[in-house]
Amino acid sequence: MESQFQFDWQAAINSIPFLIKGIPYTLLISFGGLVIGFVLGIIFGLLSINKKWFFKWPATAYIEVFRGTPILVQVLFIFYGLPDLIGGPIDPLTAGIAAIALNSGAYISEVVRGGVQSIDRGQTEAGLSLGLSRTQTFWSVVWPQAFRRMIPPLGNQAIVSIKDTSLFSVIGVGELVRQGQVYIANTFTAFEVYFVVAVLYLAITLSLSLVLRLIERRGLASV
Amino acid sequence: MTQIVKMKGMNKYFGKLHVLRDIDLTVEQGEVVVVIGASGSGKSTLIRCANGLEEFESGRVEVHGHALSPKGGNQQALTAIRKEVGMVFQQFNLFPHLTVKQNIMLAPKKVKNTPKTVANATAERLLDRVGIGSQADKYPSHLSGGQQQRVAIARALAMEPGLMLFDEPTSALDPEMIGEVLDVMRELAKEGMTMMVVTHEMGFAREVADRVIYIHEGQIVEQGKPDDVFDNPRNERTQAFLSRVLVR
């Protein structure tokens, strides 16, 4: 049977104003979550390379649990499961941000660990031999170099997390995909609308890639 | 004379490997002690024990009057010693994210709270002294190996150390750059800096050292004035080592 399908450009264009309303939520959840995730990543990444077991083990457990379970399960657990525990509802936006934060935090922990461990021991020895304390050596010598190496994988994680927010349509956050679903329910133009949704995601991630490339270039220019 | 370094019955293990055995060693103020020995003999480990970059398992180590405890105890002494002891590494270990001048200013600013203008002036003076004043605002990766090592020396000197440790400072350099680094070290020695130098540069050792120490399998088997050690080694291990490195 030959398909009678024709891409309806008008329907695609008409959907844009409605779909765009989802972008602030997509950005809020992803960047809000990533900022918290970055803080978690620094804390747990550094704890995971600590020699003392009571720092290292809990950090490793956190990383393994949140890397080893699907983010969809995590957000469902937070949104539907946690209210039973805390005795009150959690709004979908908070649940979404929390899921991105905890999930990206686990991956960023590994990025931080890898970045810090990639810095030659000689750098630490040079810092210590100059009389800097361990803390001063870490933050003035090791961290700035490690952070520079962390930029590409951090950018990668940001892009992954932005796309992960699409899963949160299941808990009813009005982000991009959710907006698309609502719009399609009224217009039945699934092909066009999901096409526009995809293009909008691509616009976000490509802009981010561009910014990251500029940052990388500036960072590397000085070394 | 003041003894800057006092080691007494010091032993050091890497796991089961006994890398330093009953080390007794003193270094007087203004003395240049050159440590020689085959690779793996423990000579680098020995000088790294003098600023606590390596822990030792038993014995006594005292530097500038601060006594280090075995197994890295006594953090206070460690901190005090590191402020007074400079170190130059085989691989330079300059901070690649900082300019040459920032490399030199970092420790005075952070450790001694030296005002920026003072630290800046000191850095410029030291860079002139090691002959690379014009490179102050470059990053280390834009410098040759010899220049980088001279920056590393200036960086250590910025803390006004009473003792300088050199851990094979010319071993990673191209042959044509070894001379410029040794020149700076020679100047330092002339100015009366107390120095412990691990090196394979036997010509430098003979010329600059007040005392040469030969280490074999973690033990000091011979020490004395360079002419005595090089021309009339008493220990047969020293003789064997020197015949390998001096005959070309």
Q: Count up the domains of chain A.
A: 1
Structural class of chain B: alpha/beta
SS elements, strand count of chain A? 0
Range of helix content of chain B: 25-40%
Oligomer: heterodimer
Let me know the average pLDDT of chain B: 94
What is the C-alpha radius of gyration of chain A, as a whole number of Å?
A: 21 Å
Largest sheet of chain B: 6 strands, mixed
Can you identify the CATH superfamily of chain A? MetI-like
Physical arrangement of strands within the biggest beta sheet of chain B: 6-7-8-3-9-10
Share of helical residues of chain A: over 70%
Unreliable parts of chain A:
none
Cα distance spanning the termini of chain A: 62 Å
Q: Proportion of β residues of chain B? A: 25-35%
Please report the number of helical segments of chain A: 9
What sequence of helices (H) and strands (E) makes up the elements of chain B?
A: EEEHEEHEHHHEHEHEEHH
Report on the architecture of this protein.
The complex is a heterodimer of chains A (223) and B (248). The radius of gyration of chain A is 21 Å and the shape is elongated. Chain A has 223 residues and is mostly helical. Chain A is 81% helix and 0% strand. Chain A has a single domain, classed as MetI-like fold, CATH 1.10.3720. Chain A is built from nine helices and no strands. Chain B is an alpha/beta fold and 248 residues long. A six-stranded mixed sheet of chain B has the order 6-7-8-3-9-10, with helices on both faces. A four-stranded antiparallel sheet of chain B has the order 2-1-4-5. In chain B, helix 4 crosses helix 5. Chain B starts with a strand and ends with a helix. At the A-B interface, helix 6 and helix 7 of A face helix 2, strand 6, helix 3 and helix 5 of B. Chain A: This is Putative glutamine transport system permease protein GlnP. Chain A: One of its GO terms (molecular function) is transmembrane transporter activity.
